[in-house]
Design goal:
The complex is a heterodimer of chains A (341) and B (261).
Chain A lengths: L1 E16 L3 H10 L2 E16 L3 E6 L5 H8 L7 E6 L8 H4 L3 E5 L11 H11 L4 H15 L14 H13 L5 E5 L7 H18 L2 E5 L3 H7 L2 E6 L2 E7 H8 L3 E7 L5 H7 L6 E4 L4 E6 L5 H9 L4 E8 L2 H11 L12
Parallel strand pairs in A: 3-7, 3-8, 5-6, 6-7
Antiparallel strand pairs in A: 1-2, 1-4, 8-9, 10-12, 10-13, 11-12
Chain B lengths: L1 H19 L1 H26 L4 E2 L2 E2 H21 L5 H7 L3 H5 L5 H8 L6 H18 L7 H29 L6 H9 L11 H10 L7 H7 L6 H26 L8
Antiparallel strand pairs in B: 1-2
Helix pairs in contact in B: 2-3, 3-7, 3-8, 3-11, 8-12, 11-12
The chains are: A alpha/beta (341), B mainly alpha (261).
Chain lengths: 341, 261
């Protein structure tokens, strides 16, 4: 069964257009001008049960708006959504019983009371039986090492501690789908990787479907088998992370530092016949771009014989780099032409 | 049953939170009571100059005031929508409310419970008993069930009016300007309605029916024949306004736009 089905989903917002100056402000008082903006523009996708899917895009691309429609917070302007067998905004109260939601920038917990009291309150709100609650809480507390924190008020927790508690709060009722909106925002590396491990475990042992938005691509690399990339309200990529890398990755970069001055013409002459592109930083430093299907050693054998090399660095195009390029071009179509020399 | 259980849970949480800020609690109770006391003193000042007000004696007006305090206390305790626009719409806390399996409005009521207001209701009952004694009213068996029904009716009227006004935040940007005006108008309901001109009487009865949170139901206990029919309308008006407000709220929530990311 599909956990999430979305078809031609759209959300328009009416934005007030302010006119400038005092005159404009007075005009606005009587007659306002509005403009319709599509925050999410006819998107379609399905997510099968048990998948971890990453939902990425620049700020304002429509990620949060989509998540809010999927969780029943916002009513779509048009299109169909089915999550867990429900239309989220129609039977909201029944529907939310089966999902868990974590908003990285917003707390589920009560500020002034102990963490455990918040959990107890959520137990009542979600009508979880005492036995199920205890079992689930023990597991989660054990797994996330919260024993010490349970009696402290939320306002006295660090962000990392709070975030781990937020996860517990969202999972107490054993939801089959979990939505996470920027769950690792502002956290240090240790807590980030703890949370990633935890989510992975959750997915493996309980088969929980997870949809997360993030700006940290390491979250995606560590967790997601699939990525949906959004730009200006439309999906520009939907598929595996590996596919994205092979499609967009430009191969490896080999950076040479030479013992003596080297001319551009010389560099090109050395690798004559190979699909290698050179860029020169200075007389002494040059970088060769080696396509993914070619062995780096071929370049070495050509260059090392010709000049005195003092240092070599090999680096692969990182996911960050790839995504940055896609964002700036606004499309996941691979650029047409790779200039070969 | 589910909702009753939740009221208890949220109430105990309120107590736990408040115990950490004890001084605050007493300041709130005392300032509330002082506010009510000044209103009462105002009534005494007025009656220092006149025998009757719209055909009501001093003790009768005080009795009406006593009744007025009972539903007002309940309303302030359970239906606290003061900071709704700011906290739930502008700061986007409505997001969190909408991801939980209980009615959104009910959750907001629970998160803003204000039990100290109930002290006002208790004092209202004391004032009714005291001024009733002055008037020589005999306590009759039906007073208690009727008082309960009327109080529920009046509280539902408060709830209805304020839910309707609050629901407007879903449709318009910032309607908060109306609320302080309402708070002013609601006090009109605790004086004999006959002192106002015809237009205001109609407004207080049918448009913003604040006469039903004070003078009309109280008149029943004072055995004022001329207002008897109106008094029995109190629960009906309460149900009508409350139902209308729920419908408006439910359709308003569908227009909620969220805030920020």
């Amino acid at each position: 069964m599909q956990a999430i089905e979305v078809q031609d989903l759209r959300k328009n917002f009416r934005i007030q257009q302010s006119r400038g100056g005092l005159k404009g402000a007075l005009q606005d008082l009587f007659a306002r001008e509005y403009r319709e903006v599509a925050a999410v523009n006819d998107i379609s996708f399905t997510i099968p049960q048990g998948e971890i899917c990453g939902y990425i895009g620049e700020n304002g691309a429509g990620k949060s708006t989509t998540i809010k429609m999927l969780t029943g917070i916002l009513v779509p302007t048009s299109g169909h959504i089915k999550v867990n067998g429900y239309v989220p905004y129609q039977e909201r109260e029944k529907f939310v019983q089966g999902i868990g939601v974590v908003f990285g920038q917003r707390s589920q917990l009560w500020w002034d009371i102990g963490v455990i009291e918040s959990f107890q309150l959520l137990r009542k709100v979600y009508q979880v039986s005492e036995a199920d609650f205890k079992k689930r809480l023990d597991e989660l507390v054990e797994r996330l090492q919260l024993q010490e924190l349970l009696s402290r008020p939320v306002r006295k927790l660090s962000l990392g501690q709070r975030m781990r508690c937020e996860l517990v709060a969202a999972l107490l009722h054993n939801p089959s789908i979990v939505f996470l909106d920027e769950p690792t925002i502002g956290l240090d590396i240790v807590v980030k990787s703890e949370i990633r491990e935890f989510l992975k475990d959750l997915n493996r042992t309980q088969g929980t479907t997870i949809l997360l938005t993030t700006h940290d691509l390491q979250d995606i690399e560590a967790l997601c088998s699939r990525v949906i990339m959004l730009d200006a309200g439309s999906i520009i990529y939907d598929g595996g992370l590996d596919d994205l890398k092979t499609r967009w990755g430009r191969g490896r970069e080999v950076r040479f530092q030479f013992g003596g001055a080297v001319q551009a013409a010389q560099l090109n002459a050395w690798t004559m016949g190979l699909p290698v592109t050179w860029t020169q930083e200075s007389d002494l430093v040059a970088t060769a771009l080696v396509p993914a299907d070619m062995a780096v050693s071929d370049v070495f054998s050509r260059v090392l014989g010709q000049a005195e090399v003092t240092d070599v660095q090999i680096s692969e195009t990182s996911t960050d780099e790839i995504v940055r390029q896609i964002y700036s071009s606004g499309s996941a179509e691979k650029p047409e032409e790779q200039p070969h020399v | 049953m589910y909702y009753l259980g939740l009221i208890w849970e949220y109430f105990t949480n309120y107590v736990k939170t408040r115990l950490t800020y004890r001084a605050d609690f007493w300041v709130e109770v005392i300032s509330d009571l002082l506010f009510q006391a000044t209103n009462l003193i105002f009534i005494f000042v007025v009656f220092a100059h006149t025998e009757t007000l719209g055909g009501f004696t001093e003790a009768e007006v005080v009795f009406v005031y006593g009744y007025f305090m009972v539903p007002y206390g309940l309303y302030s305790c359970f239906i606290n929508l003061w900071n709704f626009g700011d906290r739930y719409i502008v700061k986007g806390e409505m997001d969190r409310i909408l991801t939980r399996p209980a009615h959104s409005l009910f959750q907001i009521f629970l998160e803003n419970l204000d039990p100290p207001s109930l002290i006002g209701s208790v004092i209202g009952i004391i004032i009714m008993i005291w001024s009733g004694g002055q008037l020589g009213l005999e306590m009759e068996w039906w007073y208690i069930p009727v008082l309960i029904i009327m109080t529920i009716g009046s509280t539902l009227i408060y709830a209805g009016i304020y839910i309707i006004l609050t629901s407007v935040s879903f449709y318009s940007d910032s309607p908060t300007g109306i609320i302080p005006l309402m708070v002013n108008i609601q006090t009109y309901g605790r004086y004999p309605i006959t002192i106002y001109n015809r237009a205001i009487q109609i407004i207080l009865t049918w448009v913003l029916p604040f006469a039903f949170v004070g003078i009309y139901p109280a008149a029943l206990f004072l055995q004022r024949q001329e207002m008897m029919a109106m008094a029995w309308l109190t629960p009906v008006m309460g149900i009508v306004f409350f139902t209308a407000s729920l419908l408006l709220w439910n359709s308003g929530v569908k227009r909620y736009r969220g805030a920020g990311s």
